[in-house]
Design brief:
It contains nine helices and no strands. With about 240 residues, the chain is an all-alpha fold. The longest helix is centred in the C-terminal third of the chain and has 44 residues.
Length: about 240
Amino acid sequence: METKPVITCLKTLLIVYSFVFWITGAILLAVGVWGKLMLGPYISLIADNSTNAPYVLIGTGTVIIVFGLFGCFATCRGSPWMLKLYAMFLSLVFLAELVAGISGFVFRHEIKGTFHRTYTDAVLKYNTEDEASRAVDNLQHKLRCCGVYNYTSWLSSVYYPSNGIPASCCSNPSDCNTEDLRNTTIAPSKVYHQGCYELVTSFMETNMAIIAGVTFGIAFSQLIGMLLACCLSRIITANQYEMV
């Protein structure tokens, strides 16, 4: 049969695509778990309330893994209705990723505003003990920054009158002490000068176009799988082909 080589070729391409799709799900699952375990405190600085973003990634990754395996099974089985179901799922993933990419790009300024509000609130209520305070310390230490715009953000915090500027702002921890950090004359020479808000938002602005491009690229790759699944289903149905 002339159609048999075509069907074999489409099956091979769809199995390869489904495997790549499965890998994508595994990556999302891993990123979600990593985000929940490692980025929980930082995420609390970006969202007003506790965010479900890691759980969304974990759930999405798990579903993609399941349907990636389903796609391989449907392809090997040569079942038209399974292939149509697989194509339908890919179309839903395509729409979800498209909406997520557009929303993230359009509302990036709102994300920046939320980060400014929550980070400022964390600085003002800093106490070294709660999750937000630990996240602030980690952020300042790793990004080598201090306060929202600069060290003066700490002068209005509840922590400053008794303890001064947090030690996580020190550019040289071995040359910092509480007395120096409470002295507005000496402290500027002991701490980082750049604010954390500027560093984080400049990173977001610089990389947002790249993130959006990758998201749209992944989204439109679903069209390839949809096309392969629909074509294979149609050819199998038309020729009443079944894999033994």
